[in-house]
Amino acid sequence: MKVAIATDGSQVSGHFGRCEKYEVATITDGQVTDRQTVPNPGHQPGALPTMLHGLGVETIICGGAGPRAVALFEQFGINVLMGVSGPVDKALEALASGELEVGESTCDH
């Protein structure tokens, strides 16, 4: 599985589209096997789902995202996991082990 985590510093970002970068990782057999940093190209409707789909991303992790963004990701078959906070490394480990806790979007728009 290929996953993109919205990242501010070393923390999961509260807003997917407005983060500073994305950590894109591959998880195979419960282990993170590859990881790269992708800068945020800017907050433009529709651009991020297209870009991440092109990278092969199947799941995104963030604190929150607006309903329109979620719908666009779902059109590309990308699963959206929201309500996540804390260190990116811990979120990746939790996802890989099947223990990631998700919740409601923290996005306020």
Report on this model:
With 109 residues, the chain is α/β, with parallel strands linked by helices. The chain has one domain (2-96): Dinitrogenase iron-molybdenum cofactor biosynthesis domain (Nucleotidyltransferase, domain 5). 24% of the residues lie in helices and 29% in strands. It has helices spanning 47-54, 67-75, 88-96, and strands at residues 2-8, 11-12, 21-28, 31-39, 59-61, 79-81. Strands 1, 2, 3, 4, 5 and 6 form a six-stranded mixed beta sheet that branches. Strand 1 (2-8) and strand 2 (11-12) form a beta hairpin. The mean pLDDT is 91.
Tag the structure with descriptive keywords:
Nucleotidyltransferase, domain 5; single chain; 6 strands; 109 residues; six-stranded mixed β-sheet
SSE map:
Layout: E1 2-8, E2 11-12, E3 21-28, E4 31-39, H1 47-54, E5 59-61, H2 67-75, E6 79-81, H3 88-96
Parallel strand pairs: 1-5, 5-6
Antiparallel strand pairs: 1-2, 1-3, 3-4
In short:
Helices cover 24% and strands 29% of the residues.
